[in-house]
Amino acid sequence: MVREISSGGVVVRSRKGVWWMAAIELPAPPATATGKPKTVLCLPKGLVDPGEKPLDTALREVREETGLTTIPISKLADIKYVYSRSWAGGERVFKIVSFYLLGYQSGRINDIAPEMRIEVARARWVRLADAPSLLAYKGEKEVARRALDYVALNKLETQGA
Q: Would you say residue 160 lies in a domain?
């Protein structure tokens, strides 16, 4: 079984007393039986490059996939899962993704390079409180819950409040 190591971020921002989180929509898959493609909302993440530290990967991937520059706050969790590639003959992959809580510093959401549109249909802000029910993947839902707990317990403040 192939092994992949990735890293990503939960970008948070407080606006008028409400916490928001940056999320990405994946490009639409083929239409379902009902004719309407399902929107897949997830956290920005990507493979750790050789020699790169996981936190640096998270900062880079967030910038590439959302258009935002961020500052590290805390590591939230490592999630582990197995998936089958839709290419390479359906090869099974054991994946570990380290997620970091990141504070918004600058940039405009969805201001990303055109070549990123193969990976990201759109980046947008969602209410952090709603994120666990909006995100598509179980592990990412749990990471969003941890971010929500961290913000509440630490009375966190970020730039852009």
A: no
Question: Total domain count for the chain?
Answer: 1
Report how far residue 59's alpha carbon sits from residue 55's, in angstroms, rounded to the nearest whole number. Answer: 6
Cβ distance 69 to 105 under 8 Å?
yes
Q: Supply the CATH number for residue 150's domain.
A: 3.90.79.10
Q: What is the 3-state secondary structure (H, E, C) of 60-121?
A: HHHHHHHCEEEEEEEEEEEEEEEEECCCHHHCEEEEEEEEEEEEEEEECCCCCCHHHHHCCC
3-class state of residue 10 by DSSP: strand
**pLDDT one-digit tens code per residue, 8-41:** 999 999 999 899 999 999 997 665 666 677 789 9
Reported pTM: 0.90
